[in-house]
Design goal:
The chain has about 130 residues and is mainly α. It has a single domain, classed as Multidrug-efflux Transporter Regulator, Chain: A, Domain 2, CATH 1.10.1660.10. It is about 60% helix and about 5% strand. The protein contains six helices and two strands; from the N terminus they run αααββααα. A two-stranded antiparallel ribbon has the order 1-2. A hairpin with a 2-residue loop joins strand 1 and strand 2. The longest helix has 28 residues.
Amino acid sequence: MSRNKFKQFSDKDLPAIPDKRYFTISEVTRLCLVKAYVLRYWEHEFKQLKPIKRRRRRYYQQQDILLVRQIKKLLYENGFTIEGARAQLASSPEAVSEIVKTNAIVKKIILDLEMVLNHLKTSFCHT
């Protein structure tokens, strides 16, 4: 698969991360736009990615989702190999880049503002 196919989805295309404590693997696939088998593979390749496993199910937390988005960015957008991405993450004490964190926060703020706007629109329509 060429890199151009990977570049069709950037951080800007990713949905906002909901305010939840735990996410299933299927929720993470939708939030990060990667397949479940890719997430399971990355768990073996990147020691920082360790979802909680209970009753043979994986539960990811928000920091895991940010890490998955960072790994995806390194591999698919920046063109790193698995080994290069692993070294990049290991070399920085902060595993998730500020850009990935900022994009997630901005998306959440936009989603919240859209909800407020919709609420205001419905309130004014009914008065």
